[in-house]
Design brief:
The complex is a heterotrimer of chains A (212), B (281) and C (243). Chain B has helices spanning 48-55, 73-80, 100-110, 115-128, 144-156, 174-191, 202-208, 227-232, 246-256, 267-280, and strands spanning 6-16, 22-25, 30-33, 37-42, 63-68, 84-87, 162-166, 194-199, 211-215, 221-225. Chain B is α/β, with parallel strands linked by helices and 281 residues long. In chain B, strand 9 (211-215) and strand 10 (221-225) form a beta hairpin. Classes of the chains: A mainly alpha (212), B alpha/beta (281), C mainly alpha (243). Chains A and C meet through helix 1, helix 3, helix 4, helix 6 and helix 7 of A and helix 1, helix 2, helix 3, helix 5 and helix 8 of C.
Chain lengths: 212, 281, 243
C-alpha cells in the first residue's frame, strides 16, 4: 500500500530525463510496449523488450521499492503453468509478457503525474469517465491516510495477532467498515463542496473542451 | 463601517438530523451587516457548523427563517451562490482538483467562466495568497496549512461578497495563523468582504472580529456584542463554558493588584496601553 | 478469486477487444438510460467506493496474495448501475498500478461488475428469505464469487486455441533453442492427444483456491456489513429493518 503513494510521489518529485518527457510521448511509448507484449510471440523479442524497459527503469532513477509492483502479477501468471502442462517455453513466454506489461505501465505512472495521464486519456474518453477517474484517484489518497492511521492503531493496540485469527479478522473487517463509512461521509462533504463551487451536473477541469 | 445593509438574517431555526438529533438555534436573531467581521464562539457540538450550513442551503430548517442577501438559501441558493465563498472545517474533501491550480480553477470553470478569464482570476488569487510556489503541486502532498490556504483561494477566486469559514484556524501553526488573520483582515478592509466564522480560539477573537456571538451548548445564541464588551463581562458568561482570553485575564489580574492598564484584547493595544500609562507615571 | 489478473498478450486479440467493446456498450447504455443528475449526484460516492476497492486490492490480508474484493459490498451500497462504472474505473487504476493487464480491463470489468450486481440482487433476495444479515451476506457473497469465478474460467477457456498456438509456435533461432528443439520434436512426433492446453487442471486449481477466497470474502463481507448495519443501517436500505 505504501507503494501506491511511493509511485505517485516518484512521478511528482522525480527529475530524470524520462520524468521530463511529455506525458503523451510516454503514453505512446507504453502503448507501443503493450503492442509488443500482445503481438510478440517469441522469447528473444520479449526478452529484448524487457531489457529495454529495465534500462529505462534504471536510468529514470525510479526507486527500487516500486520495482516490486511490477512483480506482483507473476503470482497469478503461475496459474498458467497449469494451463500449459508445464511447458517451459510457454511459461517463460507468459512470465515475460507479464513482466513487460506490468513494467511498462508502472514505469509510466512512476514518471508521469496522474493528472497528466488522465488529461491525455480525457482527450479520447468520455468526460464523465475521466471525472470518475479524477475523483477516484483523489479519494484514494484521502482514504489512504485513514487506512494507514487505522492500521497503526490496530497494530499498536493488539488488533493483529496471529494467535487469535478470528479476533484479528473481525478487527480487520471493522477497519474496512470504518474506512467505508468514513469514505461515505467524506463523499457527502465532497458533494457539498462541489455544489458550493458551481457543480451543476458536470465537472469541468482545466483543458477540457466543453462538449455538451 | 457606514452601511448597515443586512446580508444575513436567521431567526430561530430548528433542524433535525437523520439520527433524530434536534438542533435549535434561537435566543437572539442572528444578523450580519455588510462589511462586518462576525465570529461565533461556542463549545464543541453546540450547533455552530449547523448554523453555517443553513446559510449556504446545505441544511434547510424545519422551523424558522434564513435569509442571505435577501434570499432563502435552502430554496434559491443558485441565485446567490457566486456571492458566497465557503471554507469548511475539513478541507481535504473541499479540495477537488488534482493540482492546486486545477482546484482554484474549479469554481470559475464550473460557473461557466471562459477558460482564459478563469485562469486570470486564478492567477490573481494565487498572487494575493502567495501560493505561487505550490501552484503546480499535487494536492495530497500539501501540508495542513497549505491545504487551508488552497481551500481559501478556491473560495475567494470569484471575489465573493460574503466569506464563511468554519474553524479556519484549527490545526494551524502560529505563523500560518498570523498569515491567515492578515489575509482575512485585508479582504475585509480592502475589498469589504463580509466575514462569518466559527472559532474556538478566544485569543484570536479580537484580531478578526467586529461582532461576536456566543452560543450556548444547547444551540441558542445568548450574547451579541463587540469582543471588548463581551469579555469585559466575562464573569457573567459562565454558562457558555468559555475560556477567557489571555490578555483579558492578565489585565484583570493587574487591575486587581492596583495596576489599571485598561482592558485591551489585542497585543498592539496592550503595548500602547502600558506605554501610555507608564508615560503618565 | 475472480479478478482476472491475467497478463497482457495471453488472451486472444478478439477476446479482449470484445471485452472492451462490451464494457463500453454497457456503460453507454447505462448512461443513456439513467438520469444524468442521478449519476452525477452520486459521483463522489462512486469515487470513494472505487477508491475503497482500490485500497482493498492493495492490502494483503493473508500472505497468499489474498486481498478483500469489496465488490459485493460496493454493489450493495452503490446499486447495479453505478457498480459497473465503479469497477471500470477501479480496473483502469489497478491496471495502471500493474495489478493486472491493461488489455483485460474490459473483461475484468464485466466479470467484477457481474459479481457486484449478483451480490446486490442475491443479498436482497436472501434478506427477504432469511431476514437475517449473516446468512444473507455470506450466501450472497459466496454465490456471487462462485459465479464470477466460473465466468473468469469461461473467459480463459475461450482462448484455448490461442494458448495452443502459443505453445506450438515455431521458434526461429531463439536463445533457448536447445530445449525448444527437443520439445518441438516431441510435439511433432506425437499424435496430438486432445490438446496440450490443460484447462481441467487450471480449473481445478482456480476453483480450489477460489473456494478459499469465496469463504474468506463471504466472512469478511458479512463482518463488514454487520459493522455498517450497527452504525449506519440506512445505507443498507433493508426492507422491514428499522434503524
Amino acid at each position: 500500500m505504501m507503494q501506491l503513494s511511493y509511485l505517485d510521489y516518484s512521478a511528482v518529485e522525480g527529475k530524470s530525463w524520462l520524468h521530463r518527457l511529455p506525458a503523451i510521448v510516454k503514453m505512446v511509448g507504453a502503448g507501443f510496449s503493450l503492442c509488443g507484449v500482445v503481438f510478440l510471440e517469441n522469447l528473444p523479442g520479449l526478452l529484448g523488450l524487457y531489457t529495454v524497459l529495465l534500462f529505462l527503469f534504471v536510468t529514470s532513477r525510479v526507486p527500487r521499492a516500486i520495482f516490486s509492483l511490477t512483480l506482483y502479477p507473476l503470482i497469478f501468471a503461475f496459474l498458467f503453468i497449469f494451463v500449459s502442462g508445464f511447458q517451459i517455453r510457454f511459461i517463460l513466454l507468459i512470465f515475460l509478457k507479464v513482466l513487460c506489461g506490468s513494467t511498462s505501465v508502472v514505469l509510466l505512472l512512476a514518471t508521469t503525474p496522474y493528472p497528466a495521464v488522465f488529461r491525455v486519456l480525457g482527450k479520447v474518453l468520455p468526460s464523465l469517465f475521466v471525472t470518475a477517474l479524477f475523483l477516484t484517484y483523489r479519494s484514494v489518497f484521502i482514504l489512504l491516510d485513514t487506512l494507514e492511521e487505522t492500521r497503526h492503531a490496530l497494530y499498536l493496540r493488539g488488533g493483529f495477532q496471529w494467535q487469535h485469527p478470528w479476533r484479528s479478522l473481525v478487527n480487520i473487517a471493522n477497519a474496512f467498515g470504518h474506512l467505508i463509512l468514513k469514505g461515505i461521509d467524506a463523499s457527502e462533504r465532497m458533494y457539498e463542496s462541489m455544489v458550493l463551487r458551481g457543480f451543476e451536473g458536470k465537472i469541468r477541469y482545466r483543458g477540457e473542451k466543453n462538449r455538451d | 463601517m457606514t452601511e448597515m445593509e443586512r446580508v444575513v438574517e436567521i431567526d430561530c431555526i430548528t433542524h433535525i438530523y437523520p439520527d433524530l438529533t434536534k438542533v435549535q438555534i434561537c435566543g437572539l436573531e442572528f444578523v450580519v451587516n455588510r462589511g462586518e467581521r462576525v465570529s461565533i464562539l461556542g463549545t464543541n457540538g453546540c450547533g455552530k457548523t449547523t448554523l453555517l450550513k443553513h446559510l449556504v442551503g446545505l441544511l434547510v430548517p424545519k422551523d424558522g427563517s434564513v435569509r442571505v442577501f435577501g434570499v432563502n438559501p435552502g430554496k434559491d441558493f443558485s441565485k446567490i451562490r457566486n456571492k458566497i465563498g465557503v471554507v469548511m472545517q475539513d478541507v481535504d474533501e473541499q479540495i477537488l482538483g488534482p493540482t492546486v491550480y486545477d482546484d482554484i480553477l474549479f469554481a470559475p470553470l464550473n460557473y461557466g467562466v471562459p477558460q482564459a478569464e478563469a485562469e486570470a482570476l486564478a492567477k490573481e488569487v494565487i498572487e494575493r495568497l502567495s501560493l505561487q510556489s505550490i501552484a503546480g503541486k499535487i494536492v495530497h502532498y500539501l501540508s495542513g496549512g497549505e491545504k487551508r490556504k488552497v481551500a481559501l483561494a478556491g473560495a475567494l477566486v470569484l471575489k465573493p461578497e460574503l466569506l464563511i469559514l468554519d474553524e479556519p484556524f484549527a490545526g494551524l501553526d502560529p505563523l500560518s495563523r498570523r498569515d491567515l488573520i492578515r489575509i482575512l483582515n485585508e479582504l475585509n478592509r480592502d475589498n469589504r468582504v463580509t466575514l462569518i466564522m466559527t472559532l474556538h480560539e478566544v485569543d484570536l477573537v479580537a484580531e478578526v472580529t467586529d461582532v461576536l456571538y456566543l452560543m450556548y451548548g444547547h444551540g441558542d445564541l445568548g450574547e451579541r456584542g463587540t469582543p471588548e464588551d463581551i469579555f469585559s463581562r466575562f464573569k457573567d458568561l459562565a454558562g457558555f463554558n468559555l475560556d477567557e482570553p489571555t490578555l483579558s485575564k492578565l489585565f484583570k489580574g493587574l487591575k486587581e493588584e492596583g495596576l489599571d492598564f485598561g482592558a485591551p484584547l489585542r497585543l498592539d493595544e496592550a503595548i500602547q496601553s502600558i506605554k501610555s500609562h507608564w508615560g503618565k507615571k | 478469486m475472480s479478478h482476472i489478473h491475467l497478463p497482457d498478450g495471453v488472451l486472444p486479440l478478439w477476446l479482449w477487444v470484445s471485452g472492451y467493446a462490451l464494457a463500453i456498450l454497457i456503460s453507454a447504455i447505462l448512461f443513456r438510460f439513467r438520469k444524468k443528475d442521478f449519476m452525477t449526484k452520486r459521483f463522489p460516492l462512486l469515487g470513494m467506493m472505487a477508491a475503497t476497492m482500490v485500497l482493498g486490492a492493495a492490502v494483503e490480508i493473508i500472505p497468499i496474495a489474498y486481498h478483500v474484493n469489496l465488490t459485493v459490498i460496493s454493489g450493495i451500497l452503490l446499486g447495479p448501475s453505478l457498480i459497473f462504472l465503479a469497477t471500470f474505473v477501479v480496473n483502469v487504476i489497478l491496471a495502471l498500478f500493474g495489478h493486472g493487464g491493461v488489455t483485460v480491463v474490459g473483461l475484468n470489468t464485466i466479470v467484477l461488475s457481474l459479481e457486484g450486481i449478483l451480490g446486490y440482487l442475491l443479498f436482497r433476495l436472501f434478506w427477504k428469505i432469511f431476514r437475517r444479515l449473516t446468512p444473507a451476506a455470506f450466501l450472497a457473497t459466496f454465490l456471487a464469487l462462485l459465479v464470477s469465478t466460473f465466468a473468469m474460467i469461461g473467459t480463459v477457456a475461450l482462448g484455448t486455441t490461442h494458448y495452443e498456438a502459443l505453445i506450438h509456435h515455431e521458434e526461429e533461432g531463439g536463445i533457448l533453442g536447445f530445449e525448444l528443439g527437443r520439445e518441438k520434436k516431441e510435439h511433432l512426433e506425437a499424435e496430438p492427444k486432445g490438446h496440450e492446453v490443460n484447462l481441467r487442471r487450471f480449473m481445478t486449481i482456480a476453483l480450489s483456491l477460489g473456494f478459499i477466497g469465496w469463504v474468506l470474502e463471504g466472512v469478511m463481507t458479512t463482518l463488514i456489513l454487520k459493522y455498517i448495519q450497527r452504525l449506519r443501517p440506512d445505507l443498507l436500505r433493508l426492507e422491514g429493518h428499522s434503524p
